[in-house]
Design a protein that fits this description.
This is Sulfatase N-terminal domain-containing protein. By secondary structure, the protein is mainly beta. It has two domains: 313 residues, Alkaline Phosphatase, subunit A; 384 residues, 6 Propeller (Neuraminidase), CATH 2.120.10.10. It is built from eight helices and 39 strands. Strands 1, 4, 5, 6, 7, 8, 9, 10 and 11 form a nine-stranded mixed beta sheet that branches. A four-stranded antiparallel beta sheet has the order 12-39-38-37, with no helix packed on it. A four-stranded antiparallel beta sheet has the order 13-14-15-16, with no helix packed on it. A hairpin with a 2-residue loop joins strand 29 and strand 30. The radius of gyration is 25 Å and the shape is globular. Bound molecules: calcium ion (3 copies) and zinc ion (3 copies). One zinc ion binds next to helix 2.
Length: 727
């Protein structure tokens, strides 16, 4: 079938909240246990017998991020793992003491609503994109805090019922049909909430429900999904029939029987992670079952292919099996190489998250990054022996059998290169089926990648255990490694869903990474992210400094309703961290802290979202006494919106702060790498702001090394590549 004219197709994504494991999939015992699932349950008779045969079913479909409602929905919308916990703010429910502002929990990258509206010059009032749901959400589902997008191109939000009435799905469905009939929107996300609600209530400790209510909710949601398709496909429905794709999926699963049973969810077990996806529409083959691994982040790219918009910030890949046309694979306009920046990668796929390190002496530079050229993300390595003018061909260092790899970090010890990253390996825990599980991995090379040591899984994610509310899972995220004398340090953020029960662990090794000891950087974290480390030997101590961000989406309790830039330090190479503190606390989004030292100076930089003016700015905080006392923070960026700060203390004895500055006025919207520097420990910064990158389109996420070499992810060719330059 020909692809329908661009922008002429219509797409509906129905999220049937968490009906997994008990109810939807039962493993076919006669089939390959790792890949083959059949729909066995009579509770989903409509989808099994009527809907799925009309289209394409992905049976190996996974949530590899947060298996909760907020994180799941935002991941569906943005195509990039959104590590946000459930939020009373996002659901519009304020509990207890409500004297503080609600905090921002929008996704950091654009949703499909925003991509579609912006590409077609629509606005919320154009009524082309809608969220319709029983989940009482504010605008967190409708728009992001991405500098280029946001509320002015967000989706409309229709909540019904507007209270906590249950059952609600039939009422939500009526409002959905009314919305479709009235406005003829082109892109709709609908959420049926009852299955999840009654799943939780079925807990024997909960008086409000029992398992039969849960099964009934599945039957109702199943029939509503089928009714929706019959309505969209009805002969009289000339606006939608033959032009509309329906995608049915779920935000997360529920615990399997080995991890507490179906009542709750939010962990990393098979039941929580394993989802389903059924797609039906004019561009989708019938009677097709796809067995390969596919992910929740693939939905936004698929919607982009159907509706004809680019989705540059998504990290998933379009579900090509359900598309009877050749996907564009998110390729945007190629604006050419630019003037004097050095291109490190040349792929037609996603190359992102670069990190760079330089030897203490000599001109050799080392870069690691995540690359999706072979269809799965791998960690790649390249080096330059002439200060970045020329680069080796990239070589893979992540384990080939791993099915995903993310966020590498790199440091030098002498001339040895040490890297850490997180990779997802298939693992069995208590049941016959494997589940993708995140590991923190380490490897090193003594000869510029001629030979890499065996990949050591330094730590693995921890499964939830019964009772799951007391023993929640932890998942590895955002590892970082650093060295400047003494012990080697490597820290990783571990997140789960239980408030104030998550941790940042510091792994330190005194024998080159063969053995690792652990200590805690923070034991009261919730969703710690974007950890950065700096270390330096000073007056006979091995100092280590860690900065990261965290949030608390509840009004009451230990921390309460805020985003944080958190900080801690160690004076013995990471063996003990003694000074956990808040460098900044705010009701608005803070992001991407970065730390650098020239002891006794310690400088931290971060980005702050100004919601009133829809603008990001970069800030700087500093200490003159090894982190004891902190001076007033200062804004470093100019009037333009600025994200992704990256701070270094360079070999010329200056601090440099790099970031990505947006120029939202032109076409394309341009984000370029700029910097300022300080010669006095961060007290004063150059009055000029210098521009480093010179491509058109997005140059984002700079990372710098002591020799002032800077790498970043760059979209100037219409596909993400790694670029390099130095001030
Ligand atoms: Ca109950
Ligand atoms: Ca692989
Ligand atoms: Ca340049
Ligand atoms: Zn949910
Ligand atoms: Zn739930
Ligand atoms: Zn679970």
């Amino acid at each position: 079938m020909e692809r329908l004219s661009r922008g002429g197709t219509v797409c509906a994504v129905a999220v049937m909240a968490a009906a997994l494991m008990f109810g939807i999939w039962v493993r076919d015992v006669s089939a390959d246990p790792t890949t083959d699932y059949v729909i066995a349950s009579d509770y989903v008779e409509c989808m099994r017998d009527s809907l799925a045969p009309l289209g394409t079913r992905y049976q190996n479909f996974w949530n590899n991020g947060v298996t909760q409602t907020h994180g799941g929905h935002l991941t569906i919308g943005t195509g990039i793992w959104q590590l946000l916990p459930n939020s009373t703010t996002s659901f519009g429910i304020c509990e207890g003491d409500d004297t503080e502002d609600n905090i921002s929990t929008e996704p950091d990258k654009p949703t499909f609503f925003e991509y579609y509206n912006k590409a077609n010059s629509y606005h919320p009032d154009s009524n082309k994109t809608f969220y319709v749901g029983g989940k009482t959400w504010r605008d967190t589902i409708a728009c992001s805090v991405d500098p280029e997008f946001g509320r002015s191109v967000g989706g409309r939000v229709v909540i019904y019922p507007q209270d906590e009435t249950a059952p609600a799905d039939t009422a939500t469905y009526r409002v959905l049909i009314n919305t479709l009939s009235t406005y003829h929107p082109h892109l709709v996300l609908v959420n049926f909430k009852d299955v999840d609600r009654y799943g939780h209530w079925a807990d024997p400790d909960d008086e409000r429900g029992e398992p039969s209510d849960y099964y009934r909710a599945i039957v109702v949601a199943d029939s509503l999904v089928w009714n929706l398709w019959k309505w969209l496909d009805a002969e009289w429905n000339t606006f939608y029939k033959g032009k509309t794709t329906l995608i049915v999926t779920t935000d997360h699963g529920r615990h399997d029987d080995d991890h507490g049973g179906f009542y709750h969810h939010g962990g990393i077990c098979h039941g929580c992670r394993h989802l389903f996806l059924i797609a039906v529409g004019p561009d989708t083959p019938e009677e097709t079952v796809v067995t390969r691994y596919a992910y929740q982040i693939d939905i936004c790219p698929t919607v982009g292919e159907l509706l004809g918009f680019y989705y540059p910030h998504a990290r998933g890949s379009a579900l090509s099996e359900m598309l009877e046309f050749e996907p564009s694979h998110q390729t945007g306009t190629n604006y050419g190489a630019g003037q004097d920046d050095v291109r490190i990668t040349s792929t037609d796929s996603i190359s992102v998250s670069p990190k760079i390190a330089s030897s203490a002496t000599g001109d050799t530079l080392h870069v690691v990054y995540a690359d999706k050229s072979d269809g799965e993300f791998e960690i790649m390595y390249a080096y330059s022996t002439n200060s970045g003018s020329d680069w080796s061909s990239p070589a893979q260092i992540s384990t080939d059998t791993a099915i995903d790899a993310q966020v590498p970090s790199i440091c030098m010890i002498g001339q040895d290169v040490h890297t850490v990253w997180m990779e997802s390996r298939l693992h069995k825990d208590g049941q016959a089926d494997s589940v993708p599980r995140w590991y923190l991995c380490h490897s090193r090379t003594t000869d510029c990648g001629g030979h890499w040591s065996n990949v050591i899984p330094v730590a693995s994610s921890k499964y939830e255990r019964v009772p799951v509310r007391e023993k929640p899972s932890w998942t590895i995220w955002d590892p970082s490694i650093n060295y400047d004398g003494g012990n080697k340090m490597c820290a990783a953020a571990l997140y789960g869903i239980e408030r104030n029960k998550n941790r940042i662990v510091s792994f330190y090794s005194t024998n080159g990474g063969a053995h690792w000891d652990t200590s805690w950087v923070d034991t009261l974290a919730w969703v710690p992210q974007h950890l950065d480390l700096a270390s330096e030997s000073y007056q006979n101590d091995d100092w280590g400094f860690a900065a990261w961000c965290d949030l608390d989406t509840l009004a009451t309790g230990l921390k309460g309703y805020a985003w944080y830039i958190k900080f801690n330090r160690s004076s013995n190479g990471g063996a003990y961290w003694f000074d956990l503190r808040d460098l900044h606390k705010d009701s608005t989004y803070v992001a991407d802290p970065t730390v650098a030292t020239d002891l006794p100076y310690v400088v931290v930089s971060w980005a702050l979202w100004d919601g009133d003016n829809a603008k990001w700015q970069t800030y700087c905080g500093r200490s003159e006494d090894v982190g004891d006392h902190w001076e007033d923070e200062a804004v470093l960026s100019s009037d333009s919106t600025a994200i992704d700060p990256e701070l270094i203390f360079a070999s010329d004895n200056n601090f440099y702060d790099f970031w990505a500055e947006y120029d939202r006025s032109g076409t394309p919207v341009d984000a370029h790498i700029v910097y300022r520097y300080s010669t006095d420990g961060g007290e004063h910064w150059s009055s000029n702001q210098y521009r480093l990158s010179d491509g058109q389109s997005y140059s984002l996420r700079p990372h710098a090394c002591k020799h002032k070499g800077v790498v970043w992810e760059d979209y100037r060719h219409g596909t993400w590549e790694i670029y390099f330059d130095s001030p």
